[in-house]
Amino acid sequence: MSVLTPESEVPEVVKPFTIGPTWKRGSDRRFVLPEYTLGWHALAWTATYLQHYVGKPWQYTPEQARLTLWWYALDPATNRFLWRDGVIQRLKGWGLRQGPADRDVGGVRVRRAVPVRRDR
To answer: Could you tell me if residue 57 is inside a domain?
Structure first.
């Protein structure tokens, strides 16, 4: 029986269908992140000011962090957000950590919820 490793080639029939840049990988097989984004500020703000529940700091999954970075991505020519709207669909329970009381709600849902500022 063969073992599937990150370096091995995934058969075409099991490759996931994705739209958008969030799951794009570079030649080194690492995820591509936007060059210009306010997402790092959103991630820092939520890590500083939000909690899962009393005493436990807010923590994103790696996929949720990538989604946040791409959601706040900027066009360097116009200094505007690349995306006006977006949808993410996941199965029930996505974002759960150890148990039901430890649920991560899946990132910042509205841009105005996090105080990000871009210089004009």
So the answer is: yes
Question: b or e along 32-62 (b: 16 or more beta carbons within 10 Å of the residue's beta carbon)?
Answer: ebbeebbbeebbebbeeeeeeeeeeeeebee
pTM assigned to the model? 0.66
Query: Residue 41 sits in which domain range?
Result: 34-113
Rg for the chain (alpha carbons), in Å?
A: 17
* Residue 56 covered by a domain: yes
Which run of H or of E encompasses 68?
helix 62-71
Higher pLDDT, 85 or 98: 85
* CA gap 119, 38 in Å, rounded: 11
22 found inside a domain: no
